[in-house]
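Dear support,

I submitted the protein below through the web form. The confirmation email said the job was done, but the results page showed an empty box. After a refresh the structure appeared. I'm attaching both so you can tell me whether what I see now is the final result or a partial one.
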Amino acid sequence: MATQQTHLIDLLIDLELDRRLDHEHTRPGWAPISSLELVGMPVGKGRGGSLNRETLVNRLNELRDQDLHLSAKSLLDQIPVRRRIAMLIQAAESDSRLEGPWCVSYDEIISTLPHYLQMLGFAPRLASSLRFGSVQALKDAAKNGKKQLDAVIPKTRGEGWPLQRREAVA
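What the results page shows now:
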């Protein structure tokens, strides 16, 4: 694989890991504004809504970032689940920003796989049919998943290019 393509693959895996670990958990439905303000109804003591430009800009930028995460998800969904999980575990293990339960060895992750699958958003029962006999088996599955992902990614920019995004709002 070419270096640029390798970086793209790593970026797509990181985006999916970010979506599974952060975005799926930090959007429980709480917003800094009232839902009534979204439909333009005045809220508060006779004042208009507090929906301001900064909130709108942040929301538009979140939507833009969501497009990237959904593009990564749609590409990774084409990879068999065993390989996809191996790629995500490998990315999480090598990400120095992650802390807590991810700061363990591959052996520990493999031995408590249902727990880590649940943290990644997979059903823990999936672990009963999914086994990595060794660290090398996990690394081989991740390597094969990356090769398969490389075959799925369009090679030229244009329609279907995975990282097309809307322009950021200033």
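Response: this is the final, complete result; the empty box was a page-load delay. DSSP finds eight helices and no strands in the chain.
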